[in-house]
């Protein structure tokens, strides 16, 4: 399934700190494993980059770089259960440095302590407190929240673009990737059920903002750049969403990354494949900002 030695080394290093069973552990244990794993991959911030913690709309955030006319709103992944300002600090710092745009990272509330819609409520509050146009970017659960934000804003001020990185968008599980990649490294299909239960309990998901593929109408949303990892149960959510956006008249591009697993952004310094993908993501962010 994955033959690239750089990617295989990344997977081995990740699983040594964050074993598959961590996804089925308690939230506290899962976070302990996840934080330790992220710390192993965390890169130094670019020298001279100003970083400050502040709140937007009452939500804790971290700001990277001086204010610019266009901002980047970054929403981290982690299945809505793990992750925060520290886990994605280096990614946000590199986005700000590479694009020249101020990046604002959102520390939204986590499940299961805070069930849906606390997460999207926090993202909306930050968006409303921003005083300028922005490109919204997210990975994994954060990508779903980015798309959910665009849905919530339908008919109002949209982001300049939405950049969705290996998103989980509420696919029904019938797509091939859910079975082909059921035992994929770093994220298995069974793990998706654990995270869904933590976020929603055992009831049905009825809010399209939590599962944007459920939305009956995607017209009027921000243009999209959607990146999937080929060895990921969530892979097929990306082309399905892009097809729906295009059918609704929204400009959308899909890029699928061969031999890369879910969570590969942490491999951007050790894997040529992940590095090229991150460069494409940076270019998409800059492109949306420039058109704005």
Can you describe what's shown?
This protein has 292 residues and is of the alpha/beta class. The chain has one domain: Rossmann fold (3-Layer(aba) Sandwich). Helices cover 38% and strands 17% of the residues. The chain contains nine helices and eight strands. It has an eight-stranded mixed sheet, sandwiched between helices. α8 (237-247) links the parallel β7 (224-231) and β8 (252-261). The longest helix is centred in the last third of the chain and has 20 residues, at 272-291. The radius of gyration is 17 Å and the shape is globular. The chain starts with a helix and ends with a helix.
Structure described in brief:
By secondary structure, this protein is of the alpha/beta class.
CATH homologous superfamily?
A: Alpha/Beta hydrolase fold, catalytic domain
End-to-end separation: 40 Å
Strand segment count: 8
Sheet having the most strands: 8 strands, mixed
The global form is globular
Q: What is the CATH topology classification name?
A: Rossmann fold
CATH architecture, by name, is: 3-Layer(aba) Sandwich
What percentage of the residues does DSSP assign to strands (E)? 15-25%
Strand order of the largest sheet: 1-2-4-3-5-6-7-8
Low-confidence stretches: none
Layout: helices, strands, pairs:
Elements: H1 5-17, H2 27-41, E1 51-56, E2 59-64, E3 71-75, H3 89-99, E4 102-106, H4 118-129, E5 134-139, H5 141-152, E6 161-165, H6 176-180, H7 189-200, E7 224-231, H8 237-247, E8 252-261, H9 272-291
């Amino acid at each position: 399934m994955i033959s690239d030695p750089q990617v295989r080394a990344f997977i081995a290093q990740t699983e040594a700190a964050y074993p598959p069973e961590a996804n089925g552990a308690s939230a506290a244990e899962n976070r302990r494993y996840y934080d330790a794993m992220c710390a192993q991959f965390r890169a130094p911030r670019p020298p001279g980059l100003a970083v400050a913690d502040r709140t937007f709309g009452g939500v804790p955030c971290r700001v990277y770089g001086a204010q610019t006319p266009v901002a980047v709103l970054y929403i981290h992944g982690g299945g809505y259960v793990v992750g925060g300002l520290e886990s994605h600090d280096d990614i946000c710092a590199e986005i700000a440095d590479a694009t020249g745009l101020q990046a604002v990272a959102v520390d939204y509330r986590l499940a299961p302590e805070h069930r849906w819609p606390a997460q999207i409520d926090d993202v909306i509050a930050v968006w409303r407190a921003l005083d300028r146009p922005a490109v919204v970017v997210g990975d994994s659960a954060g990508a779903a929240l980015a798309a959910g934000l665009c849905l919530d804003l339908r008919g109002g001020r949209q982001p300049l673009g939405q950049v969705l990185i290996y998103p989980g968008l509420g696919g029904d599980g019938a797509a091939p990737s859910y079975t082909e990649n059921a035992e994929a490294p770093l994220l298995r299909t069974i793990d998706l059920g654990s995270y869904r239960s933590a976020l929603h309990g055992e009831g049905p998901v009825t809010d399209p903002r939590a599962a944007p593929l459920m939305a009956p109408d995607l017209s009027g949303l921000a243009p999209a750049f959607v990146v999937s990892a080929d060895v990921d149960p969530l892979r097929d959510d990306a082309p399905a969403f892009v097809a729906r956006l295009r059918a609704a008249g929204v400009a959308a591009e899909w890029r699928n990354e061969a031999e890369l697993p879910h969570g590969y952004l942490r491999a951007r310094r050790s894997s040529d494949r992940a590095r090229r993908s991150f460069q494409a993501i940076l270019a998409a962010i800059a492109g949306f900002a420039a058109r704005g």
